[in-house]
Amino acid sequence: MLAQLLRVLSLADYNTRVVMFGTMTLGIAGGVVGVFLLLRRRALLADAVSHAALPGVAGAFLLAVAAGGSGRSLPLLMLGALASGLLGMACVMFISRFTRLSQDAALGIVLSVFFGFGAALLGIIQKMRGAQAAGLDSFIYGKTASMIRSDALLIGIAALIVILLTASLFKEFRLYTFDADFAAGDGWPVHRLDLLLMTLVVAVTILGLQAVGIILIIAILIVPPASARFWTDSLRLMVLLSALIGALGGYFGTAISAIAPRLPAGAVIVTVLGAAFLLSMLFGSSRGVIHLALQSRALKRKTLRQNLLRALFECEEAGALHSEQQQLEYLSRIRGWSRRELRKAIGMLARSGLIYRVPGCPWQFSENGRTEAMRVTRNHRLWEVYLLEHADVATAHVDQGADFIEHVLGDAIVAELEASLPRFGRALPQSIHSLTRSNGGSDG
Amino acid sequence: MIWTALDSWIVLAGALAGASCALVGAFLVLRKMSMMGDAISHAVLPGIALAFILTGSRAGAVMFIGAAVVGVVSAVLVEAVRRYGNLEHGASMGVVFTVLFAVGLILIERAARHVDIYPEHVLFGAVELVPLHLVSIAGLEIPRGVAVLALMLIINLAVVAVLFKELRLATFDPGLATTLGINATAMHYLLMTLTALTTVAAFEVVGSILVVAMLIVPGATAHLLTRRLLPFLAVSVALALLAAVLGHLAAIGIPPWFGFEDTSTSGAMATVLGLFFLIAFLAAPEEGVIARGWNLAGLRLSIVTQDALGLLARAAEDPANPDGSLSASDFRSVSLSPFRSAGAGLAVALALLRARGLVAADKRRFRLTQRGQAAAREVLRVHRLWERFFYDEGGVELGELHNAADLLEHYTDSDLRRALSDRFTGQRTDPRGKRIPG
Known about the structure:
The complex is a heterodimer.
Chain A: H1 2-9, H2 14-39, H3 43-66, H4 74-98, H5 103-126, H6 134-141, H7 149-168, H8 170-178, H9 180-185, H10 190-212, H11 217-228, H12 235-259, H13 265-283, H14 289-318, H15 324-335, H16 339-351, E1 355-357, E2 363-365, H17 367-390, H18 395-406, H19 411-420
Antiparallel strand pairs in A: 1-2
Chain B: H1 5-30, H2 34-55, H3 61-85, H4 89-111, H5 119-124, E1 134-137, E2 140-143, H6 144-162, H7 164-172, H8 174-179, H9 184-225, H10 229-253, H11 265-283, H12 289-317, E3 326-327, H13 328-333, H14 345-355, E4 359-362, E5 365-368, H15 370-392, H16 398-409, H17 414-423
Antiparallel strand pairs in B: 1-2, 3-5, 4-5
């Protein structure tokens, strides 16, 4: 078993190499075209097209047998699939254009009815005397093991053409994917690009029928780009990553399918892709769940830290606090912190050496702490003044507005703020709010 | 073709499956969640497979519960991937259901060693095998599949009947439903649960993909035929029942015409449903393509004839044109002509007007007959009344008046015309000082 696995993974057989070439280029083509399909929000259209291909496959088989052939020629079956897949796509468009049914109802109708008709045709084929219908099974669930060399070469080369075509139209597709209206206004043939993209999608779908199967082919178009999306915001990188994930799916799917031929290859490929998706969704460096959670936690901590620094600073400005107890009470009143939150925040500042305490006395700034607190307070007040003078926000409301934004102000924006409020120079503006806090409601 | 008791059981199973699915699916169609039905029907597969592996049989409540749980979990997963993964709904469905289905297929392949289930049954079902598994209920030997589906239909009927008001509100106006204290989210997941349960119950008969046809196509077809909820549900269910009968007849009856043996009933049922939809798509009284095309053609025709009459009426006012006649090229070149671009509209309009006796042709020039003059005056009158209206009431500038009036004059029925006349009684001229005829 292990020896066999190694033999397959290291591509020792010529046959395995050829099949691998076919499925991996297919995976890459799916990944590349899929990026644009996903970004154009047409993911499920590919599902309808692939299901609609079944009656084409079965019909082509029946016709070939009726004409005296064996019916098992891959190009012929693919041609049938192409014809009925395109017909299915046209039906989806007609139904959503000419009725008040939603697009997803149109997809569901086409997908299930075409597939049902295909099933009826398959039912006939299976009971035909002497016909070798076994080959057709591989179109439903996919069977890389049944791919012969010429099939794999055909698939691989056609997929290569799809990849090259997409790559050469990268700029056009990018423009039309992100802003079709602008592209149209700029004179690009948006409709033809749209048609071309859908043709490429249909091509991948049909090419993938034998390796992945009708049911799951949509996955090689959707799952790799959806996974790649978690890692990057750059389209170029997303295409590359998506291609890589697609290729990995093809590689492992073929390998496992070669070792366990009873397992449907399509299911294996899609399970591999599904694992890639799960990992990406969790660990993705751009939109991954963990990354986002960490980011939001860091922002929360930063906010808490800056709020406390400013509160302490303003408390010092107001003066007249003699004990730690008094100080804590005051802080929790003005910011509505619970004692636990407050203790946590104070601990955070103390650990980073920004504040310290002589036992029994209130917390005090270290030198670093005072600089940092002044910077934070200054940002806040500059922003308040800015809102007051340039955005006509009422005095009682600027504090909230400033609170939202001050924690995410970058150095460049602060510099701009300083430039637009030159009278303060490098100095710390006075608070615009009264510093007597008898009611405890305001925390400016 | 020989009809046996087996055929009756097959039709009954198909009809029960179709009716249960149609009832639930009708709500999916209304809520624009058709593909969610597709997603759930794929996603229950791992649940079914796990239950096979755990219990070692195809029967039992475990399978139902397992599959239903997975079905609902898949609905939750789709939502989670959409929200936390920032993916659009379709893509998140695509990811979730393909991966779950793939896992289910692999599990089934493992389970197939222990239980009699084949991957092809997963897709197409095995309605032909339904009469072979019998259970005895109240002394009667009936197929297990039929008993299960009958129970499913009763459950679906009961839920829809009891929660009819809530379902209706949550479907058509979730906001209002929420303010009235109906939990729209709960309704959503109730529907998802019913979909999952029904999918599992129908699985044996129609498989996991054709069940989508049973869920969606009856509802979609009925949607084109009626706009009221109760008739809509009734038509959906009736179509599903009819499809079961016709589908089985087609499956055993049609292939022999071409010298083949019979074919799968479930596939034929889906095909028949597709034909129903095609017929409704083409010939539905209001929504059908034919009816709408007919109405559109009628409207176009009335617009071009009115345009032609209007031009002739204006020509009759022209002092340089004593007999008020126009040649075909005049029609295309006079000012305000809507016939500037080449097209068949003018020829059709003139032919129709001549056939009605409103226009006469003489030496390739066209002029109004006595009756035509009255009709043309009316067209011009409505046009100029609208110009008056837009000028006096709408503050539209002189240069824009013609286009504004042109938009409305063709859609002005007798009530509106009377209202316009009453509004401008005694007003003799349009804003440019031309006479308002009549």
